[in-house]
From TrEMBL:
Biological role stated in the UniProt entry: Decomposes hydrogen peroxide into water and oxygen; serves to protect cells from the toxic effects of hydrogen peroxide.
Domain Catalase core as annotated: residue spans: 19-412
Signal peptide segment: none
Family, as annotated: Belongs to the catalase family.
Residues of the active site: 66, 144
Protein name: catalase
Source lineage: Bacteria, Bacillati, Actinomycetota, Actinomycetes, Kitasatosporales
Record GO biological process: hydrogen peroxide catabolic process; response to hydrogen peroxide
One Pfam short name: Catalase
GO cellular component terms, A-Z: cytoplasm
């Protein structure tokens, strides 16, 4: 056999020479070093071992949720005001202050439950995570395409995800497991009415909304706070698929939404979303029939009108899937001055979880990677070393002082914000309790009534098909919930399952469940 190495470059071939990571030229990339042409191989074969052992480590763990996704880049442009009112009246966050101010962004769209190569036409919430590279450091707004979530306390997140993921014994995707969990989780009803309607399968990523879902705060120059919710509205409108549409799409292509985004952005068809914000004063709002910190609820638009604050355009796709999509890391703790957390019990749990998983999934120095670093702010920390440390922050004249305080140099603390202790004062006893005003059914029913006829038909069909695969006791409990959501929904799903209102009349409310007077009347 001809030895490729002996062939040398063809005349006029000026391509760079292949090397290993040590910079050594590779003279033969076809044959490993062996004793004689038929082997055995030798262990000091550095080039082969470097190549194969790097290959062995090519994959990092995929995200435990939202494994399949696509990243795109662009900018956010602030409007500076709504009507005559400057946005600065409510938040001092610099990115919102001036009309026309642009902040670069990276966005990652994703599905939640499937693995890294799963279908993008699955019925599943879609992730809508935005990283703003502001001059005050990064801000991540980590949202979904549906306005509410399944649960309201972070302690239940592993359970809801286990129920939605495949069976741990056979790895089969089983609706029986999903509805077993949901039947015991009444706060999931609002999400289920959304997820099993056509909204549960967006046509692609360009035609879907985004929602921050959790409640955050804004802080103004005076330190006054308001509660806010964020929503992204697509300029192209919302498009969804039925189960049949989705089956046809995924028969031909598992990654249709990624493909659609790459093709659109590359041909100059840059998708755009408007960011609107709902706002309410920073208190408990006893007048409302829900808690403003409950992420299974939406805020009625009549009372809390959406206020447009800017627009986002995506105009560039990544050059490297691994570096920019697999390693990009978002988290709800990543806020800038003028933006803050609320006490939403999901938000607090999420804020721990994201950076915890990223230190494990990407590594402790994940924030040094180009896609994650605060590239428009100055970064000076005393953090040192760790796995894959790539660079140390510049410390000016005294790089040896990597501690603080010091009288010989090093870094100093910043100036304290004028009003750091903002918001209402809170006192309470340590406890483990549901929030009051759970009101699990009312908004789910209102959502059902807002659906168009074809969407309602699709919802009923999807729920009936899947719940029919669950145990009879789960089926009955689901019909019981749906009758409380909206009579029509309960009757229709019940009809499909052969379960009438009389068959569920014996069921008591779940242990610890809070029902409203109206719920009780409907029982
Ligand atoms: C990704 C945890 C609720 C949106 C993730 C990841 C974790 C996680 C561990 C993987 C992150 C990574 O590997 O980089 C949680 C917990 C939740 C929760 C503990 C509840 C307590 C939510 C909610 C939303 C959401 C309510 C939507 C508002 C996302 C998105 C991603 C994600 C968009 C993907 C980010 C990306 O593209 O890299 N979540 N999550 N999560 N989560 Fe959550």
């Amino acid at each position: 056999m001809t030895d490729v190495a002996s062939q040398g470059p063809a005349p006029g071939d000026d391509r760079p020479v292949l090397t290993n990571r040590q910079g050594h030229p590779v003279y033969d990339n076809q044959n490993q070093r062996t004793v004689g042409a038929r082997g055995p191989a030798t262990l000091e074969n550095y080039q082969f071992i470097e190549k194969i052992s790097h290959f062995d480590r090519e994959r990092i763990p995929e995200r435990v949720v939202h494994a399949r996704g696509v990243t795109a880049y662009g900018y956010f442009e602030s409007y500076g005001k709504w009507g005559d009112e400057p946005v600065g009246r409510h938040t001092r966050a610099r990115l919102f202050q001036e009309a026309g101010k642009r902040t670069p962004v990276a966005v990652r769209f994703s599905t939640v439950i499937g693995g890294r190569d799963s279908s993008e036409a699955a019925r599943d919430p879609r992730g809508f995570a935005v990283k703003f590279y502001t001059e005050d450091g990064n801000w991540d707004l980590v949202g979904n395409n549906l306005a509410v979530f399944f649960i309201r306390d972070a302690i239940k997140f592993p359970d809801v995800i286990h129920a939605l993921k495949p069976d741990p014994v056979s790895h089969e995707q089983k609706p029986a497991r999903i509805f077993d969990f949901m039947s015991q989780t009444p706060e999931s009803m609002h999400m289920l009415v959304n997820l099993f309607s056509p909204r549960g399968i967006p046509a692609d990523y360009r035609h879907m909304q985004g929602f921050g879902v959790n409640t955050y705060k804004w802080v103004n120059e005076a330190g006054d706070t308001v509660l806010v919710k964020y929503h992204w509205l697509p300029k192209l409108g919302v498009r969804s698929m039925t189960e049949e549409d989705a089956a046809a799409v995924q028969a031909g292509e598992l990654g249709h939404a990624t493909k659609d985004l790459y093709e659109a952005v590359r041909r100059g068809d840059h998708p755009e979303w408007e960011l609107v914000v709902q706002m309410m004063s920073d208190d408990d709002h006893p007048e409302l029939d829900f808690d403003p910190l409950d992420d299974t609820k939406v805020w009625p638009e009549q009372e809390f009108p959406p206020r447009p604050v800017g627009r986002m355009v995506l105009d560039r796709m990544p050059d490297n899937y691994f570096a920019e999509n697999e390693q990009i890391s978002f988290g709800t703790g990543v806020l800038v001055d003028g933006l803050d957390f609320s006490d939403d019990k999901m938000l607090i749990g999420r804020t721990f979880s994201y950076s915890d998983t990223q230190r494990y999934r990407v590594g402790p120095n994940y924030l040094q990677l180009p896609v994650n670093r605060a590239k428009h702010a100055t970064v000076h920390t005393n953090q040192r070393d760790g796995l894959m440390a790539y660079e140390q922050d510049q410390h000016g004249q005294n790089p040896e002082v990597n501690y603080e305080p010091s009288i010989t140099g090093g870094l100093r603390e910043g100036t304290y914000p004028t009003h750091d202790e903002q918001g209402p004062e809170i006192r309470g006893r340590l406890t483990r309790k549901r929030i009051p005003r759970t009101n699990d059914y009312l908004q789910a029913g209102q959502r059902y009534c807002l659906l168009e006829d074809w969407e309602r038909d699709d919802l009923v069909k999807n729920l009936t098909d899947l719940i029919s695969q669950a145990d009879r006791a789960v089926q009955e409990r689901m019909v019981w919930h749906f009758l409380l959501v909206e009579n029509d929904l309960g009757l229709r799903v019940g009809e499909g399952l052969g379960i009438g209102p009389k068959d569920v009349a014996h069921l008591e409310p779940l242990a610890g469940q809070d029902l409203t007077d109206e719920d009780r009347e409907r029982l």
